[in-house]
């Protein structure tokens, strides 16, 4: 392969992207020297001290944000996160312009600002993160609002059976059954690793489904729609299991995360 040509790599992250069902945009080329230089930095991170490793992860997150080809997701990262997206770019949201809507089969549709979400009771949990592609990040703290609390605020109707999630990348979606969504270990997360969620990690708000493979934890969350039935998400339409329990789905036998 000519490394100066565009590359189209599709694989779930770190939850991939996030959004509605529009086709993803094609990436722009990455030059040979840029790619080889980044590859060298990735290899260095495998044997680096923890401080350097954290810096490498921050660099890869920033690089991935400017790399629509997904090549940065192929780099070694010393057991840390990989950064994937299913779109060529993702708009940035902050406290001024972020909104999370809850609609569908509810009595009281809701719209939350980032300040609204921060003002609600927060739940913190520390779990391993397991990607369906094989990498794992142990003992990762997440903090946010239990999804069940937001559903109760909206008043879920008796006919409801599932919840669909859309994201502001304009491409990614996910779904859970209503029973799954009401679990105590499912969060609308605002913080990860005891820091506000960065853009690369799906900030300012993402879904976190602790006991499932990380593609269920949709990044850049913008919409929660209560539905009658489960609607397959972005990766389920491409062959991944809808019920994505770690170690009990997708043909994998990983240790459970919770």
TrEMBL record:
Q: Where is the Oxidoreductase molybdopterin-binding domain?
A: 89-235
Instruction: Tell me the domain of life.
Output: Bacteria
InterPro entries, sorted: OxRdtase_Mopterin-bd_dom, OxRdtase_Mopterin-bd_sf, TAT_signal
The ranges of region (Disordered) come to 1-28
Q: Which Pfam families match?
A: Oxidored_molyb
Which PANTHER family does UniProt cross-reference here?
Answer: OXIDOREDUCTASE MOLYBDOPTERIN-BINDING DOMAIN-CONTAINING PROTEIN (PTHR43032:SF4), PROTEIN-METHIONINE-SULFOXIDE REDUCTASE (PTHR43032)
Q: What is the protein name for this chain?
A: Oxidoreductase molybdopterin-binding domain-containing protein
* Species annotation: Streptomyces plumbiresistens
């Amino acid at each position: 392969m000519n490394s100066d040509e565009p590359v189209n790599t599709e694989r779930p992250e770190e939850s991939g992207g996030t959004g509605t069902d529009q086709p993803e945009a094609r990436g722009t080329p990455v030059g040979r020297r840029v790619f080889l230089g980044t590859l060298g930095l990735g290899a260095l991170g495998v044997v680096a001290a923890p401080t350097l490793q954290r810096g490498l992860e921050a660099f890869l997150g920033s690089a991935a944000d400017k790399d629509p080809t997904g090549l940065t997701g192929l780099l070694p990262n010393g057991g840390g996160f990989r950064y994937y997206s299913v779109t060529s770019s993702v708009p940035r949201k902050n406290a001024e312009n972020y909104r999370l809507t809850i609609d569908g089969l509810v009595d009281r549709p809701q719209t939350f600002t980032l300040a609204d979400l921060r003002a609600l009771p927060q739940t913190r949990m520390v779990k391993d993160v397991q990607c369906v592609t094989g990498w794992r990040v142990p003992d990762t703290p997440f903090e946010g609002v239990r999804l069940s609390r937001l559903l109760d605020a909206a008043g879920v109707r008796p006919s409801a059976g599932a919840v669909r999630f859309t994201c502001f990348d304009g491409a990614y979606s996910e779904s859970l059954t209503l029973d799954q969504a009401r679990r105590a270990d499912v969060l609308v997360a605002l913080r990860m690793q005891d820091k506000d969620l960065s853009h690369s990690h799906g900030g300012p708000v993402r879904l976190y489904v602790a006991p499932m493979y990380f593609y269920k934890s949709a990044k850049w969350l913008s919409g929660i729609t209560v539905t009658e039935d489960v609607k397959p998400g972005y990766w389920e339409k491409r062959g991944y299991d809808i019920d994505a329990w770690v170690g009990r789905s997708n043909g994998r036998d990983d240790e459970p995360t919770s």
